[in-house]
């Protein structure tokens, strides 16, 4: 049971880290508009825009500056830490 819990935690935390990196890459690509037109940019857009769009509903851009990605990454980090705390609680209960 402990091995299953550990593997699940590693999988989820790894996926959150990879998604955070994809978000940062997509945000950096927005500084060079032609990069979003590439195949890689389109794939990243399909993966990240639904998540970023959720935050854009609540945090509108300030002129030309869109700060919703900051909130999106912050929320992702909070989710990761919350999952880490749940993992520790469950691990201590099983040991």
From TrEMBL:
Signal peptide: none annotated. The keyword Lipoprotein does not apply. One of its GO terms (cellular component) is membrane. The keyword Transmembrane helix applies. It holds the Pfam family CCB3_YggT. Keywords: Membrane, Transmembrane, Transmembrane helix. The chain crosses the membrane at residues 7-29, 70-90. InterPro entries: CCB3/YggT. Belongs to the YggT family. This is YlmG protein. The gene is ylmG.
């Amino acid at each position: 049971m402990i091995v299953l819990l550990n593997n699940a935690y590693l999988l989820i935390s790894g996926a959150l880290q990879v998604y955070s990196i994809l978000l940062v890459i997509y945000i950096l690509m927005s500084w060079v508009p032609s990069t979003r037109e590439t195949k890689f940019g389109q794939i990243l857009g399909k993966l990240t825009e639904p998540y970023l769009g959720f935050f854009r509903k609540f945090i509108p851009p300030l002129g030309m500056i869109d700060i919703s990605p900051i909130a999106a990454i912050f929320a992702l980090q909070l989710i990761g830490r919350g999952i880490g705390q749940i993992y520790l609680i469950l691990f201590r209960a099983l040991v």
